[in-house]
Amino acid sequence: MGRKSFGDPAVAAAFAAYPAALRPSLLALRALIIEVAEAELGKGALIETLK
């Protein structure tokens, strides 16, 4: 699982706002979600947004 850059600055800011102790786990979960989505749907099919 490689580190993926954020396409949306708002998403990057949201992750940066999480407490430092939680951030590594949340980023690992994000990477896993992206990895699975790319394997199932193809690269570029996933778009990160804030709701």
Architecture overview:
With 51 residues, the protein is mainly alpha-helical. It has a domain at 19-51. Helices cover 55% and strands 0% of the residues. It has helices at 9-17, 23-41.
Briefly note the structural class of the backbone: mainly alpha
Helical segment count = 2
The helix content, as a percent range, equals 40-55%
Shape: globular
**Proportion of beta-strand residues:** under 5%
Indicate the radius of gyration in whole angstroms: 11 Å
- Cα-to-Cα separation, first versus last residue: 25 Å
> Can you give the mean pLDDT?
90
* Quantity of strands, as a count: 0
The biggest sheet amounts to: none
Could you state the order of secondary-structure elements as H and E?
Answer: HH
Return residue spans where pLDDT drops below 50 for at least 5 consecutive residues.
none
Task: Based on the model shown, name its key terms.
single chain; 51 residues; mainly alpha
Give a quick precis of the structure.
The protein is mostly helical and 51 residues long. The chain has helices spanning 9-17, 23-41.
Topology, element by element:
Layout: H1 9-17, H2 23-41
